[in-house]
Design brief:
This protein is α+β, with helices and mostly antiparallel strands and about 300 residues long. It contains 13 helices and 8 strands. α6 (about 190-210) crosses α9 (about 235-245), α8 (about 225-230) packs across α9 (about 235-245) and α11 packs across α12.
């Protein structure tokens, strides 16, 4: 059975890398060139309770593992991790000792922004819940922009802390994440052709799910189910659809259901309960509530209106 450890603090993260105590208890930038051997973590699962942004240079980053394609920049890759996610070190000691000398990690504890505007915005950065093969691939200019902010964060926590320090550190973290959000938007745009193919596959998945007895066996397809079928994370699928069709995955599933319901209401005399069951709803009232929330009228009102 593989060993697992939990990381709750910046200090623990430093200890894991064989580093000295951090200069700030809630934020740190770790450069790979400063790391000591991590061979002791061979085959260990690390349950991480911090936010982590990892930069990997193009020379050591596997294009296949991190989902890079011909539409992407090749000057570096950013991978994002949210609290509660798991890092697993390879059981192969040679893989763990091969450290990218140009790589770095920005690590910050959720407590650092609890009382700031960032606490209300952090859920907007859905890339923290993407899979590693949905990583962000950046250009040299983009790398310079975020590393400039990285240096400002380091400068703030390295000097004597005063009443402005916390605000400035958090402001720079927020700006750092805003730039990453912008770069992801650029990446979605540059992948438009590939994304259209994903949208088509998503639409076909929904169509096929409602054919035959599949809907009665599994019920209404969830976002997680659709994402898994398309080999994507749920967050990435929703963001991709939002960029391409203006709806999240859940909104699109609901749109699909309502359109099918409208067709059934107008083209058949089947009872509203029967239509609800045929669409995968376990309880007809749930169908009626969703239909009214999306159209402003009940299924009965819609049927008699036309």
């Amino acid at each position: 059975m593989s060993q697992s450890i939990e990381i709750h603090s910046i200090s623990q993260m430093h200890q894991m890398g064989g580093l000295s105590e951090p200069k700030h208890p809630l934020v740190s930038v770790i450069y790979n060139r400063d790391l000591k051997s991590v061979s002791g973590l061979q085959g260990v699962k690390v349950i991480n309770h911090l936010y982590v942004v990892i930069f990997k240079s193009s020379d050591t980053c596997s294009a296949f593992s991190y989902g890079r394609n011909s539409y992407d920049f090749e000057d570096g890759t950013l991978v994002f991790m949210a609290p509660g996610q798991v890092m697993e070190f390879s059981a192969n000691p040679e893989e763990n000792t091969h450290i990218d000398p140009d790589g770095w990690s920005l690590i910050f504890h959720p407590d650092i922004f609890r009382k700031s505007n960032l606490s209300n915005k952090v859920n907007n950065y859905s890339f923290f819940h993407y899979d590693s093969n949905e990583a962000l691939h950046i250009s040299n200019n983009e790398r310079e922009a975020i590393e400039d902010l990285l240096n400002k964060i380091i400068q703030e926590y390295s000097q004597k802390l005063d009443r402005h320090s916390q605000h400035l550190i958090v402001a720079n973290i927020e700006l750092f994440l805003d730039y990453c959000l912008r770069f992801y938007d650029r990446q979605f745009f540059s992948r438009a052709y590939l994304n259209n193919d994903t949208v088509s596959k998503f639409e076909k998945l929904l169509i096929n799910h409602f054919k035959g007895d599949q809907i009665h066996k599994t019920g209404i397809p969830s976002v997680d189910f659709c994402a898994k079928e398309l080999n994507l994370s749920a967050s990435y699928l929703s963001d991709l659809l939002k960029k391409e069709v203006g709806k999240t995955a859940l909104e699109y599933i609901h749109f699909f259901l309502i359109e099918k319901a409208k067709n059934s209401l107008l083209s058949s005399t089947e009872s509203i309960s029967g239509i609800a069951y045929s669409l995968g709803f376990e309880y007809p009232q749930h169908f009626s509530n969703l239909f009214k929330s999306k159209t402003g009228m009940s299924p009965k009102e819609y049927r008699h209106l036309n």
